[in-house]
Amino acid sequence: MTTMTDTSNAARFREFKMPDVGEGLTEAEILKWYVQPGDTVTDGQVVCEVETAKAAVELPIPFDGVVHELRFPEGTTVDVGQVIIAVDVAPGSGPAAAEPEAPAPAPEAEAPKGRQPVLVGYGVAESSTKRRARKGAETAPPAAAPAAVQAELNGQGTAAVPEARPLAKPPVRKLAKDLGIDLATVTPTGAGGVITREDVHAAATPSEPVAPAAPAVEPVVPVAEPVPAGARETRIPVKGVRKAIAQAMVGSAFTAPHVTEFVTVDVTRTMKLVAELKEDKDMAGVRVNPLLVIAKALLVAIKRNPGVNAVWDEANQEIVQKHYVNLGIAAATPRGLIVPNIKDAHDQTLPQLAASLGELVATARDGRTSPAAMAGGTVTITNVGVFGVDTGTPILNPGESAILAVGAIKLQPWVHKGKVKPRQVTTLALSFDHRLIDGELGSKFLADIAAVLEQPKRLITWA
To answer: Is the pTM of the predicted complex or chain greater than 0.70?
Structure first.
């Protein structure tokens, strides 16, 4: 970084510090820079993506200018309050711009001890683009770039203009990376030439349509990295969301006394209701699946058994009864399991709940779930059936007292009206905190959910 020896030059540069992006977190890992030194930025423009212990978050810059320096490379964990980027808010003025014959030293020589330098070129292209060139595009060496730009401004030459970077939102870029797709080869169909998720999927399977979604919330399965030939083991750092999940699960398992109960239920009528709702004009534009009816059944069961919707306050030795339901839906993502929740789900109609579920899943799949969306949950549903699993013994989400696991829905022989017939059957598992939910309450709650799924008309008669 160029040493600033006078106040007029120093005043040109503004520093952006790592903010606290969620509820007292102390650090975050820089996942991706979207700008490089020399890029023009504007107030509100996203400059990087960071991962905290709760979620991946995009950070906007709060002022205009030209990026002068990135203080940390991708993959670095930075404490809240540390400067991560310096911006020249008055480019083209002052000593730094008037003395091109004395370019800044190479990043290797000026980087503070212990910090990995950012080995990138810099300089403003003729079009003043705000996007850097694609990885692999030719750029001028770091020390020579300012002179080339100055020569262009003086009419003494023409600076090389980096190849334009394909237009795509960060979640779409990550999807392309996971699928091994080069965005430069993708034909954009979005407004203004923006590449969409559908474009990436089409590039991944050009001869086949995108597979239809499963009848419940699908997991986002991470794409495995290729294993080097001869490797006998791979070590994966535990950090960010995955580290927080591990700590939370250990704390939950060894703090709250878990009890798990199971029930197998005939959901044939529920599946028929799902098929009918898909054709209902009042449900047009929203996604209908079995999870929607299961979520509604759980909300009805909570209304009949409000003691389940509570939490144990160890510090005050109190049971805190919640008079609202923030319904958590466990979602598997490449960064680990997260549990965003639908705020005030108890007040939502069936179409509203369907829309909320669809938005929650899409946001989680794109890696855009915010810390606020995962805070304040009261009860959770985890759909292990999408993996073909019959059931499980789920661990409570910290701060909650009940979690329902939904198993795979399968056609099985079942005694129906005195005869063995093929019926749609699933197994539910309910784990609960035995300090405040005893066996009677937990059993009634689970039995009510099963009863609604067996006879969906109870959604009306019990509501």
So the answer is: no
